[in-house]
Design brief:
It is a single chain. With 110 residues, this protein is mainly alpha-helical. It is built from five helices and no strands. The radius of gyration is 14 Å and the shape is globular. The N and C termini lie close together (10 Å). Pfam families: HepT-like (PF01934). This is DUF86 domain-containing protein. InterPro entries: HepT-like, HepT_RNase_toxin. Keywords: Hydrolase, Nuclease, Nucleotide-binding, Phosphoprotein, Toxin-antitoxin system.
Length: 110
Amino acid sequence: MSRHARQRLLDVQAALEAIDAHTRRGDLSDGLVFDAVRVRLIEIGEAVKAVPDDVLTGEPDLPWSQIARMRDHLAHRCFDTTHAIVAATVTQDLPELRRAVERLLEGLGD
């Protein structure tokens, strides 16, 4: 794997850690927390778009294209984004994304 792909996976991890920190500070009903989480979800989608497909096939059960498309939705249709979608993403989808990224990074070694 290229250094670039590894760095983008590390970017996803950093965004996941930031989301955890934001949600520890408050609920998504707080506008600042919601906005901070939304920006980090955009970062995740952007990073995923930069990871080569041959790397992402190492975790075929994740909907990588949907993750990338969510970035587009959050960035370009921000007024159409409901708290329920972001909340469901944070609670239901991000734990599996975190595990998948960890496995991909472990498979790369140093």
